[in-house]
């Protein structure tokens, strides 16, 4: 169970990075590749390697080109040699249509909005490509023209190729390989290549051997969506939220959350940090609002540490010298968020919401 939601046995997201699978059970020695930071001159062009290490835990033999490609990082985007101008123009036209429709219905009085939406709906039944005409908002017209101009001018500029021919072949090989999964290492310490079977096995162990998750026999998304709608409607009825917020919070086309794992390569047996991706789930929007409302309370808590830099800054302010009888220690919290007691966590959230100076939304925790 994640929060108040049960995880189903088919909800693990096997489609990671390269959507790959493994049939090997043999022990594999990890191979780490650390690219050089300086530029390397190649026959066709200049390619700059990043400093992202690649750890190969799979049975796949990765050559120099594979490693060089992966070391560019998961955010690397290969430059396209050819651009489909027709598709770009079609995408720009669709984007312009969405922008004009948003402006067309923005900030209209409720009764006028309903009326015009109804009229627009009738029009769009006859013509699904209905697009408001330019001229209503000069700023929007200018913005659209500038964006379209920038995009088209950018296509005219000659772009340098950022992959060698061998690296392009390596990319095709990796994309077509259904035996591996590529994941970022925990704490952003590199890229890890894993046998897919081993990846599946460890994720299943994670959700089986703890009290955070429980298996269900069927997809519970529909039931959860009904609960969310009931809560949101009650909040609107009692005046806790506006009609606009009600529309925002009600799930449109929800689906189950997906589970992924990032290997902790610095630890023995390289366990996974499991990540539940809640994007598109029934509770995504209400979780977003709850987090935003709790944010101010959290950052003003005495124990709050934003990041490593903030931690080092706090250490620098500790009075020196440290007393001789002081004991310096550190400890590792295993599964920090899943280990938070649910009842105590809910109570803490309610206390935090009750202490807000500006209460945009009233807590309805039961």
Automatic annotation (TrEMBL):
Highest classification ranks of the organism: Eukaryota, Metazoa, Spiralia, Lophotrochozoa, Mollusca
Native source organism of the sequence: Mytilus galloprovincialis (Mediterranean mussel)
Name used for this protein in its record: Reverse transcriptase domain-containing protein
């Amino acid at each position: 169970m994640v929060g108040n939601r049960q995880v189903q046995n088919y909800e693990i997201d096997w489609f990671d990075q390269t959507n790959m699978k493994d049939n090997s059970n043999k022990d594999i020695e990890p191979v780490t590749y650390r690219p050089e930071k300086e530029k390397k001159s190649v026959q066709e062009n200049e390619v700059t390697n990043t400093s992202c290490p690649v750890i190969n835990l799979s049975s796949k033999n990765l050559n120099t080109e594979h490693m060089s490609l992966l070391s560019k990082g998961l955010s690397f985007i290969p430059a396209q040699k050819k651009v489909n101008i027709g598709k770009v123009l079609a995408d720009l036209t669709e984007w312009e249509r969405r922008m004009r429709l948003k402006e067309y219905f923005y900030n209209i009085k409720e009764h006028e909005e309903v009326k015009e939406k109804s009229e627009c709906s009738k029009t769009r039944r006859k013509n699904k490509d209905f697009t408001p005409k330019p001229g209503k908002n000069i700023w929007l017209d200018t913005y659209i023209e500038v964006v379209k101009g920038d995009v088209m001018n950018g296509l005219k500029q000659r772009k340098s190729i950022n992959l060698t021919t061998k690296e392009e072949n390596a990319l095709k090989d990796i994309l077509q390989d259904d035996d591996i999964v590529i994941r970022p290492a925990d704490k952003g310490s590199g890229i890890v290549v894993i046998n897919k079977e081993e990846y599946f096995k460890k994720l299943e162990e994670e959700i089986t051997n703890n009290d955070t998750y429980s298996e269900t026999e069927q997809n519970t998304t529909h039931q959860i969506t009904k609960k969310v709608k009931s809560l949101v409607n009650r909040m609107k009825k009692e005046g806790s939220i506006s009609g606009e917020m009600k529309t925002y919070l009600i799930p449109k086309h929800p689906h189950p959350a997906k589970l992924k794992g990032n290997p902790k390569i610095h630890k023995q047996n390289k366990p996974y940090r499991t990540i539940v991706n809640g994007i598109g789930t029934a509770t995504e929007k209400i979780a977003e609002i709850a987090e935003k409302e709790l944010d101010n309370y959290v950052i003003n808590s005495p124990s709050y540490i934003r990041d490593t830099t903030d931690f080092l800054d706090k250490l620098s302010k500790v009075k020196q010298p440290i007393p001789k009888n002081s004991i310096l220690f550190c400890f590792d919290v295993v599964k920090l968020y899943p280990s938070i007691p649910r009842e105590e966590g809910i109570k803490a959230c309610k206390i935090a919401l009750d202490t807000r100076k500006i209460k945009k939304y009233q807590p309805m925790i039961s």
